[in-house]
């Protein structure tokens, strides 16, 4: 069944935020990676069979305006809380992918009682006790995006073997925005781990078994710090579980969020 | 004319084979290849060469800094400027320059520079730069705010130099609750600021708006003329007419007793595989947010190997032909340099004379021949062409201290 998606621009904190919305059911907000998101992904379509799926473009990424004042990922989390209020959604579940996982975790700590369920996939945001979050500043756009995949075929299936120059430009815009808000410390918060214990939303932590971007040790930190969280590992999969193993992730997310 | 001596202070003792094997000679090329014994020797040789440049007749010594790379041993230009402030007597100490965005505390920079100005008895020229992309990564400074930090740090430093403290600074990137440095420059209203650059249009326009001389770094003659067009237009909009006193030019010039020797040594200008700053990935030299958004598309194409470098990679022979490298005996280089002066009309000229593994002895010979035989010819040409330096014509230090603006605007 084809999903009808709508796209619109909403005013949040003085700027325009781009939002794609499709499907029906409980609201599920999907927060994309630091490399942005394609407008449509098979993964989103599968989720929309069961949920009211909201995919905003992060402020300064993709088609959302860049707020010049924005300085932290926590600011983004506050903006998304404002967005949910604007849409009249009292209780959403959050699915955070990589960098988006950091935003979702921040949102969960802010008002512990008002979330549905929380799913963090290869989430950035905490300092991995072993290894480091991959530094994209040292890598070309294509090499960094490829690092998110276990296999070259997985990457090519989404972006093509030779991504377009338009795509490269988009990745540069995303990268600039990531630098603006998460340069130092790079891609994590020093205070977030101390706040995770207050989260009340049931949480599922998912990691690809070959995540070269965020070490699995960070996943263990999340799973240990979030009350009642458990960790699922997806086999033959890199950082971008949503793009490399969409069916496996959709299955995990659907059964977990539906159980709420 | 103001004629300066320049060297990158190459760390020539590293093994270029290692660099080629690794595939890069910058940023992440391991400092295990740095030899401090050779480093100590080289620093002292460079110091001797600077003193020789003063003794033989250069007007200034141009200093710069870079990080994480063998092409330039100066990690902090203020350190060499401090040493030279004490051991030289006459030459201008021309910093081109301090990378402002790298400073977490610009007030401290203002203090250091004020000390250098006082110790040197007013010989400081305090150039400022944005710092290359790799410098941001080497020092952990956010490249996306590079230009904002440059402009704000400049504003803060000038204020610290010109307005009595204490005052409070609540900026976007810098906050200082008590600015009151007890070291202020000897030169009034403040030491001259020159701004070097390579391509960035924004920097050229910024320098022109401030009325700071712009120093074109080893650009081609054609590119240099385009830079002056941009500068002159911005100057006219700001209400003054730009002239040679607003223009500086750095060019690579090596001289020796014979043509053969000079050309052999000049090949060392290519010692970093033909790249000034060494072999590096484009995303290191231009991290996202560092360059102008208008260049984004061209840059991502270049960074992914879909387009060639906007600067090109001309070989040694081509660069000799285009006068981007000039080498020979004084007799053969003088006409070439004259042509450069005629075409680009700078009041400030920096001669980048020795690079790579050119020996200390050859460097000293080059400095002596330049000073004794080449500089007098350039001065003569400069005089004929009216190429006044900012010192020659007592140009205002900045737009804020210009008294001729209305008049220039009315012309």
Could you describe the 3D structure shown?
The complex is a heterodimer of chains A (260) and B (411). Chain A is α/β, with parallel strands linked by helices and 260 residues long. Chain A has one domain (5-258): Alpha/Beta hydrolase fold, catalytic domain (Rossmann fold). Chain A has ten helices and eight strands. An eight-stranded mixed beta sheet of chain A has the order 1-2-4-3-5-6-7-8, with helices on both faces. In chain A, strand 1 (5-12) and strand 2 form a beta hairpin. In chain A, helix 1 (42-48) runs parallel beside helix 10 (246-258) and helix 2 packs across helix 3 (99-110). The model of chain A has no long low-confidence stretch (mean pLDDT 97). Chain B has helices spanning 16-22, 36-56, 77-87, 106-119, 133-139, 146-162, 201-210, 221-238, 259-266, 282-285, 296-303, 316-321, 330-344, 360-385, 405-410, and strands spanning 2-7, 60-63, 92-99, 124-129, 167-170, 175-179, 195-197, 214-217, 247-255, 325-328, 348-354. Chain B has one domain (2-405): TIM Barrel, CATH 3.20.20.30. Chain B is built from 15 helices and eleven strands. The mean pLDDT of chain B is 95. With 411 residues, chain B is an alpha/beta fold. In chain B, the strands form two sheets. In chain B, strands 1, 2, 3, 4, 7, 8, 9, 10 and 11 form a nine-stranded parallel beta sheet that branches. A two-stranded antiparallel ribbon of chain B has the order 5-6. The interface between A and B is medium-sized, with 18 and 23 residues.
